[in-house]
Structures are given as C-alpha cells and as structure tokens.
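G., the chain you wanted modeled:
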Amino acid sequence: AKSKINVPVFDPLDFFVPSAFSPGNNDGLNDKLNVFGNGIKKFSLLVFNRWGEKVYEANHLSQGWDGTYKGEPQPSGVYSFSAEVEYLNGERREKKG
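Predicted structure as tokens:
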C-alpha cells in the first residue's frame, strides 16, 4: 500500500544577527552575540572592532561571542560583523553589519 503525505515547506533562507547584545552584566539575557536561522548546514561569523581587528571567529551556530578578546572584556562600542551561511539545499547567503 502506498500513502501520500503533503508536508508544507517554507523556505525563508534568511538568518538573523541581533544588532546589540549585553555581555558581562550577568543577567543571563543577550549575553552572547549569536546568529539565528533554520536549515543551516555551514556557518561562519567574524567580528571586528572599530580598527578592523578580528576579535572573534566562529564556525558553529551553538557558539556565540561573549564580548571578550584574548580573555579580556572588550569596551562597549560599535563592532562590525561578517556572517556567511550555507543552507541544507546548498544555497549560500552572506550578511555584513
């Protein structure tokens, strides 16, 4: 016997990088900068300080930047990021901010 099941599939192919986070205040909320998305197979996140120095690099979604560099808390300020993901279907997307 055969059966057919229709499974709704939505393809958002987008990921989200928050514009702010609050490391070091020990409130348990937004303590790490993470990337959020669905259907992601591969992932890369780079964070740079205002002088263009790389202060963080990750290749796994479960990791997140805790606001430190070489074990030292970094000052509050504006940091830039470059994120690239590859989805399960092979499509790639990149964001900078």
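The beta strands are 15-16, 36-37, 40-48, 54-58, 68-69, 72-73, 80-87, 92-96.

Shout if anything looks off.
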